[in-house]
Fold:
Amino acid sequence: MGAKFEAIEYGGNGEHYCTLSMPSASVYKITMNRVSNGQPENRIERDFLDLGLSKALDDAEAHWRSQRNSVYPAASLILTGSGLKFFSNGLVLDKALDDKMFFAGVLDPFILRLSSFPLPTIAAVNGHAFAMGFVLALCCDYVIGKKNGRGWFCMNENEFASTIPPGMLSVLSRRLNNWKLIRETILDCKRWTPPQLHDKGIVDVVCAEEDLEREAVALGESVGKYAQKGSYGLLKHNYCTLHDEYRWIYQAYLTPPYSSPRRRIETDVFKLLMSEYEVSLNNDNMQEFFVRFHGPKETLYQGGVWKVRVELPDQYPYKSPSIGFLNRIFHPNIDEQSGSVCLDVINQTWSPMFDLINIFEVFLPQLLRYPNPADPLNGEAAALSMRDPKSYETKIREYIQRYALPENVTLDQDNEEESDVEMSDQGSLPSDDDNDDQVPGSVDI
Structure:
């Protein structure tokens, strides 16, 4: 698939959450390592998902997509924990209950994200999986458990008089295949061993504790081919959103305040205005504005600043936004003259669940971090990146010095040359009113 990358650490608030690595050339691995009570219990709350697992999933997907040539490379992803006692000990319940938007705004979208990830996913369950930890494993396509040592699967909510949130129930009802199994798991709080769940078709592989990673990598290498056509995640996403128990999660994004495009536009633009990004509305129009975007740290674009124009169609978020770089940037997937962007990850997978913050915190940084010279808009940049990497790096720095120094990039709207950038009106959900003669544009997000 291409060169492996160095392991990436994720954390926040003084804690280490997880690590993304590649144990083989076609297998990504997320290792959870959040310590509670002196050991890695990997208990789940907002920051663990937002700053840890979600970012790791985003980076793995971005790296995989950046390797695309005529087809995507074969690849898979393992989710596991460090240590031998816990895979995950479930939610940090008090924090989850105090956070009014945690379940609908964080946990449920994460469940759908992992369940519809575009690569085959493998839960290598290294220890106990309690409550949401059990559900976390079941969000993966394959589950490997230990035939010896610690490794119970248990939904123990009834033991401490708690309910199970609907998003978690949706996974259990989809994966546990009969009422007796559901009753024993949810109501009786049965502590299942991996061999027991293997006999019931829930766990795919059981192995010795010391062979867990080897078995997971071998399985990942054998199933990675299913990701090559690019439809693997879409098939899972459609199944999840159409499955009766998953429908409510998807519908949550189609109900107020999100059912009305106007309300959703106002909500998302307000969130962007309240963020750390510098934003300027064009004549107070919430559907056209400019964002001052800094090159990501530890990339060739660090130190550069770009003025990015954003246009929201009337059908947003069901139709994707358009964006364009107004000052020049040297990048294989960004047209130097028009500012158009070839951003396959967004073209392929735009969903109403994404918002404007995702664009500037995830999608654009990934584009700059992982260029794809096999699908260029700037042929010179693509060729130079493959033929002469040192000259490619030098030219990027030259462009930053000429066009992207922070002191020279403002959000003033009186620059005619900048305002003439071509924008795209195409989106992920085209309407009958689209103009077939539209000007080629920047990014179809």
